[in-house]
Amino acid sequence: MVYQEPGEKVRLERISPDPPKGMTKERAQRRFAELGEELFQLQDAMFGAKVNSVMVVLQGRDSAGKDGAIKHVAGCLNPRGVHVVSFGVPTAEEREHDFLWRVHRHAPRLGEFAIFNRSHYEDVLVVRVHDLVQRKLWKERYGHIVDFEELLAEHGTIVLKYFLHISKKEQKERLLERERMAQTAWKLNSNDWKERDHWDEYTEAYEDAISKTAAPHAPWIVVPANAKWYRNLVVAESIVEALRAHRKSWSKTLDETGRKRRTELAAWRSEHGEGKGGRVR
Ligand code: AMP
Ligand code: MG
After folding, report:
1. 202 vs 124: CA distance, rounded Å
2. First-to-last CA distance in the chain?
3. Which residues line ligand 1 (CB under 6 A)?
4. In testing the pocket of ligand 1, which one of 61, 87, 117 has its CB within 8 Å of the most ligand atoms?
């Protein structure tokens, strides 16, 4: 797992997309199951405490495994407190607003998780690679993104951004596999092959996006994603780590709330005599 240091230029070719030596699928899956339980409990505490929220941003090239990561991680969460949003080509209405408009309205409310399949980062990725707006416009966006994420963090949002890092060879295999298998052929999109021709431009755009927007309150995590089981583990582990840091403060808030509610209930009982001695009408 590679946490990108703020202010440092990332070089994706120097980061291996493969699992580290010695890591096995069995070990990773066992650990993932443990983390899943911890994640469920942390989510419950966060939901009750309502002082923080989580925004998980998943970015990556076509077939990098954004959907798979969401399926596995969201599968550990209580659906009551999570919403998943996919950001595709902007609609006419979205295009008539600033680029953050469609994203901001899906920012998580306190207590909740929002998981983004693509995000505001597309506006400095696909938009940059294909010149969809003028250079001087997308260049300004890094600063807007930094400010936006700072605003969310000030509101208590734990912002976590993932780049699912696959090799060019792995992408080719995945796209060809999709084509071969009747069950996955529906995912085929000739655009994925067209985008593949822009591999190096995307690399540059990703390196800039990651380097310019990595911050202590909104870190980027480059996830070695050639193996799906390792990818899932890295994403789960880093979310749990980020949430664990808040566990004590959430427990404290929950304890205080519990005490307050008990006192309120006791006061209400002594005033009304209702529910005394288990008598409930
Ligand atoms: P998929 O994630 O495979 O459903 O594809 C969604 C498509 O929407 C991708 O090709 C993205 O590049 C594209 N997309 C997402 N956001 C934007 C954006 N802001 N401007 C242009 N295209 C976008
Ligand atoms: Mg796609």
Report:
1. 10
2. 57
3. 87-90, 118, 122-123, 126-127, 132
4. 87
Per-residue pLDDT tens digits for 219-259? 999 999 999 999 999 999 999 999 999 999 999 999 999 99
Rounded to whole angstroms, how far apart are CA atoms 106 and 116?
9
* Three-state DSSP state, 6: coil
Q: Go through 7-21 and write b for each residue having 16 or more CB atoms within 10 A of its CB, e for each that does not.
A: eeebebeeeebebee
2-27 per-position pLDDT tens digit: 677 777 899 999 999 999 999 999 99
Q: Which ligand is nearest to the CA of 194?
A: 1
Residues in contact with 100: Cβ distance below 8 Å, sequence separation at least 6, in sequence order: 120, 144, 145, 148
> Among 29, 46, 9, 110, which Cα is nearest to 249's?
46
Ligand 1 centroid to residue 157 C-alpha, Å: 25
Are residues 158 and 246 in contact, defined by beta-carbon separation less than 8 angstroms?
yes
Pairing label, strands 53-60, 82-86: unpaired
CA 209 – CA 9 distance, rounded (Å): 10
Burial 123-157 (b: 16+ CB within 10 A, else e): bbbbbbbeeeeeeeebeebeeebbebbeebbeebb
93: left (phi over 0), alpha (psi -120 to 50) or beta: alpha
